[in-house]
Design brief:
Strand order of the largest sheet: 2-1-5-4-3
Number of strands: 5
Order of helices and strands: HHHHEEHHHHHEEE
Oligomer: single chain
Number of helices: 9
Largest sheet: 5 strands, antiparallel
Shape: elongated
Distance between the termini: 33 Å
Number of domains: 2
Strand content: 5-15%
Helix content: 55-70%
């Protein structure tokens, strides 16, 4: 397990550095064509892409070289010996704006990381419910199951998590129960709970399906009664 986590962290660092290098390369390419540098705009876009995908520590690691390169490009395009005061003020405003955007990106990354941690804690609590329970994301991929679910299906937790919900419940049984139940779940408001006949292993019973969250961050909670 530790090896898997270490591999995930390493691959995350590599992909983040690739995004950073791609942003630096794009700035160099565009600046070779345009007279006015586009470093702040591309830099801000890259920072928020990093903030939406990676933890704050990784964002900070990538922000340092990206920020230094943006400041270098701004200073390189400005001849301080002949530049008028209005032009100097414009470039200092750009530097301040870029720095502020970097701080906002770090805060957003920290908030997203904290929200993900709380969500995982909630999933662990729900797993402890002494009933067959399956939690999947908005795409139908199973993210958590209870011990009772493992007992009913005869599968380990690692054998269930990561599979599509129809792979465990049975797609034909889902269609028999209610062909529109998944669409009904997608369109239901947060906290909405409805009943549907489903089968888990050899057990066919009423299941309560609820929605937690909204959009692509929503979770489906299925509890067999």
């Amino acid at each position: 397990m530790k090896a898997i986590i270490s591999h995930q962290k390493q691959s995350g660092l590599i992909s983040a550095l690739i995004i950073t290098l791609a942003a630096i390369g794009t700035i160099s390419l565009v600046d070779s064509i345009n007279v006015v540098t586009c470093a702040p705009v591309i830099g801000v876009c890259a920072m928020f892409i990093l903030a939406l995908r990676y933890p704050p520590r990784l964002v900070m690691i990538c922000l340092i070289p990206l920020g230094l390169f943006v400041f270098f490009r701004l200073w390189q395009t400005l001849n301080v010996t002949v530049a008028p005061e209005s032009l100097m003020n414009r470039y200092w405003i750009r530097i301040t704006t870029f720095s502020t955007a970097g701080c906002i990106a770090l805060v957003a990354s920290a908030y997203r990381s904290r929200l993900l941690k709380v969500t995982n804690q909630l999933l662990r609590i729900l797993e402890a419910i002494p009933l067959p329970l399956i939690i999947s994301d908005s795409s139908g991929v199973i993210r958590a199951v209870s011990e009772t679910t493992c007992s009913v299906t005869g599968l380990d937790r690692d054998q269930i998590i990561g599979f599509q919900l129809p792979d465990i419940v049975g797609s034909h049984l889902l269609e028999e129960a209610d062909e529109d139940w998944y669409k009904h779940w997608l369109e239901s408001p947060e906290g909405k709970i409805f009943n549907v006949e489903l089968q888990l292993g050899n057990k066919r019973s009423t299941a309560r399906v609820g929605r937690l969250g909204s959009g692509r961050h929503a979770f489906m909670i299925v509890i067999f009664l």
